[in-house]
Each structure stands twice: as C-alpha cells, then as structure tokens.
Specification:
mainly alpha
Amino acid sequence: MHKRLLALVVAVMLISTTMAVPVFAQEAEEEQQQAAMDVSTVFTAEFCPVLKQDAGVWALMLQMFPTLAETCPE
C-alpha cells in the first residue's frame, strides 16, 4: 500500500515539474523579446536618415519604438 502511494506521489511530482518547464521557458522568451524591442540595441544614429526618408515609415517606427525619437533627434 505504501509503495503504491509513494509511486503515485512521485508520478504527480514528475508530471507537475514537466508541466511547469514550458511556463518558465515562455517567460524567458518574453524577456528576450522585450530586450530585442529596446531601440538602442536595434537602431543607431546612422539609421536615422534612412528611417526618416518616408514619413509613413517614420511614424510607424515611432509608434513601435517611442524612444526612437531620442536616438534620432529632429
């Protein structure tokens, strides 16, 4: 009886651990995506003239990356 109970507890613990791993992986992936959204790591001042050539593109980029205005002053 005790062996069955112990086996059941071990099985539940293994299943719980296995199900928790994707949650931690998803959180790590979201943190990486947030880091990628940082303008300073994506765009430098040398990209400013290219981005400002088209007003529509510039407006879209400012919506996506609000801190881009600091990187590319007018």
